[in-house]
Write a structure and sequence with these properties.
Length: about 190
């Protein structure tokens, strides 16, 4: 084959192209494995919990109940901003909800998806079918329940996602010492 190369009996393979990748003609790959390595199983899923308030507990927060009755787009916008973790603003979500309600008369088709997102984020009991039915037949009560649930989870709904993040990080202190500086010149 090539001068100075050794030929093995029964091993007549063409030379490998210079690609920079190791090539094995034996058909077996030698991976070093450790018998001590045990893959960790994924953590068990968190158990589902009940909603903190019932669907018809609207009178525990009369201000939100009245707001939702007369202007559900505000309540939906506030809920959507928290559920989306600030990626959409309260105003944009509320305006889209209003547009869908005006065009097709069913804002519940949009808001029921947010109920599902909220359930999965906070590990609440329910399913997609119940979310849709709840929003279709009792839109105001379902929006109020979602609003109360987020309040009970510790969110201040009036200041939005970014206000809540700022409020929570205010308690975290930054290092108050300045970095050490060298005095004089050194080589």
């Amino acid at each position: 084959m090539y001068p100075g190369s050794e030929q093995k009996a029964g091993y007549n393979q063409p030379p490998a192209a210079a690609t920079g990748f190791p090539v094995s003609y034996s058909g077996t790959t030698n991976y070093s494995t450790s018998s001590d390595y045990q893959p960790q199983p994924p953590p068990p899923p968190k158990p589902l919990v009940e909603w903190s308030t019932g669907l018809c507990d609207c009178f525990s927060n009369c201000g939100n109940c009245c707001m939702t009755c007369w202007c559900p787009c505000v309540t939906f916008g506030r809920v959507a901003e928290i559920v989306d973790k600030g990626s959409t603003s309260c105003g944009a979500s509320g305006a889209l909800y209003t547009l869908i309600t005006c065009l097709i008369g069913c804002g519940c088709l949009y808001s029921c998806f947010y109920r599902g997102k909220m359930r999965s984020q906070h590990h609440l009991k329910g399913n997609d079918c119940l979310d849709c039915l709840t929003h279709c037949f009792c839109e105001s009560c379902s929006l109020c329940q979602e609003y109360r649930e987020l309040e009970n989870q510790g969110f201040d709904m009036k200041i939005g996602w970014h206000g809540n993040v700022e409020q929570r990080t205010r308690g975290v202190q930054m290092a108050s010492t300045a970095p050490a500086m060298e005095h004089g010149m050194s080589r």
